[in-house]
Amino acid sequence: EAGVTQSPTHLIKTRGQQATLRCSPISGHTSVYWYQQALGLGLQFLLWYDEGEERNRGNFPPRFSGRQFPNYSSELNVNALELEDSALYLCASSLVQGNTGELFFGEGSRLTVL
Amino acid sequence: ILNVEQSPQSLHVQEGDSTNFTCSFPSSNFYALHWYRWETAKSPEALFVMTLNGDEKKKGRISATLNTKEGYSYLYIKGSQPEDSATYLCAPEYGNKLVFGAGTILRVKS
């Protein structure tokens, strides 16, 4: 069974540009979560999608947005990139709605903003 | 802002040593406590999800305990092996959101 897959592995952008990161959950998982790990910090919750709807978002500005498609894959979009957006972005999926079950993580997308 | 603290920040032990880490968290509105292991260049993997006060979970040489009233959890590794080298993350769950600690980095020397 394939795990959570994320693309691209690495992405380099300049300030002001937009970045799009993609995530495919484990087959059968309907919930997708996005986390950011900036240098020296722990994983920060960004967004939670379930059944195509945004269910919760963390304390991030509106330029962080995303969506979930009918096949439960998800996109994270970051507009008007700033230097501090440089981070590892992890996607996770779970079988149970909300965080009542363990999360299965992808290997992440590393975004560098120059 | 919920403050989840993990200690120590890093730990270097010899193969065969037993070790333990601490995770402390706000206990109000707490639902569950997750432990994850994150090896370099891999994705975080769930170790345990614990919900009950006094709960104890075990997986091989790794075990964890939970105190929901005072808001802490201990992770124990018995007879550490080099393959245990990783960052260990705890994440209490509040509502439908996991709040991750910064992790404890474990390095086991052979």
Portion in beta strands of chain A: over 45%
Q: Kindly state the number of beta strands of chain B.
A: 11
Report the helical percentage of chain B. under 10%
Straight-line distance between termini of chain A: 37 Å
Structural class determined from secondary elements of chain B: mainly beta
Number of strands of chain A: 11
**Radius of gyration of chain B, CA atoms, in whole angstroms:** 13 Å
Approximate helicity band of chain A = under 10%
Main beta-sheet strand count, sense and barrel state of chain A: 7 strands, mixed
Uncertain ranges of chain B: none
Architecture overview:
The complex is a heterodimer of chains A (114) and B (110). Chain A contains no helices and eleven strands. Chain A is mainly β. Chain A is globular and about 35 Å long. The termini of chain B are far apart. The relative contact order of chain B is 0.33. Chain B is 0% helix and 56% strand. In chain B, strands 2, 4, 5, 9, 10 and 11 form a six-stranded mixed β-sheet that branches. In chain B, strands 1-3-8-7-6 form a five-stranded antiparallel β-sheet, with no helix packed on it. The chains are: A mainly beta (114), B mainly beta (110). The interface between A and B is medium-sized, with 25 and 24 residues.
Write the layout of secondary structure elements.
The complex is a heterodimer of chains A (about 110) and B (about 110).
Chain A: E1 5-7, E2 10-13, E3 19-24, E4 31-37, E5 44-50, E6 53-57, E7 64-68, E8 74-78, E9 87-94, E10 104-105, E11 109-113
Parallel strand pairs in A: 2-11
Antiparallel strand pairs in A: 1-3, 3-8, 4-5, 4-9, 5-6, 7-8, 9-10, 9-11
Chain B: E1 5-7, E2 10-14, E3 19-24, E4 30-38, E5 45-50, E6 56-59, E7 62-67, E8 72-77, E9 86-94, E10 97-98, E11 104-109
Parallel strand pairs in B: 2-11
Antiparallel strand pairs in B: 1-3, 3-8, 4-5, 4-9, 6-7, 7-8, 9-10, 9-11
